[in-house]
Amino acid sequence: QVRLVESGGGLVQAGGSLRLSCAASGSIFSINTMGWYRQAPGKQRELVAIINSGGSTNFADSVKGRFTISRDNAENTVYLQMNSLQPEDTGVYYCNVNAKYNPFIGPREYWGQGTQVTVSS
Fold first, then answer.
1. Which H, E and C letters describe 32-64, residue by residue?
2. Which residues are registered as beta bridge partners of 118?
3. What is the CA radius of gyration of the chain?
């Protein structure tokens, strides 16, 4: 199966930057999309950014122009660079990977354990 390990969360002042990393390991046959979701207190989990195997990206409107997503296919790692952070970016950020661990079985969704991002005003 696939395991995801996230890192890079923390506390930052408004206007600051953070970089999140998520490394996938285990029995990986192929990875389709890699992305980041976040969940603020009292709110539903929402998509922040996603990148497919070809490098095409999609972002939530609220983060366009401030966040970038990239992936290292050789290391099975996805990164989220977050600039100009605002208090409304506060939440738990979850890594999400759509991957196959077996060539004969369809892809599955995998989730990281989450990393806290807190932006103070």
1. EEEEEEEECCCCCCEEEEEECCCCCEEECHHHC
2. 11
3. 14
Are 94 and 47 spatial neighbours (Cβ–Cβ below 8 Å)? no
Report whether 38 contacts 117 (CB < 8 A): yes
Q: Residues near 15 by Cβ (< 8 Å), separated by ≥ 6?
A: 84, 85
Phi-psi domain of 93 (left: phi exceeds 0; alpha: psi -120 through 50; beta: other):
beta
pLDDT in tens for each of the 121 residues of the chain?
A: 889 999 999 999 999 999 999 999 998 999 999 999 999 999 999 999 999 999 999 999 999 999 999 999 999 999 999 999 999 999 999 999 999 988 998 899 999 999 999 999 9
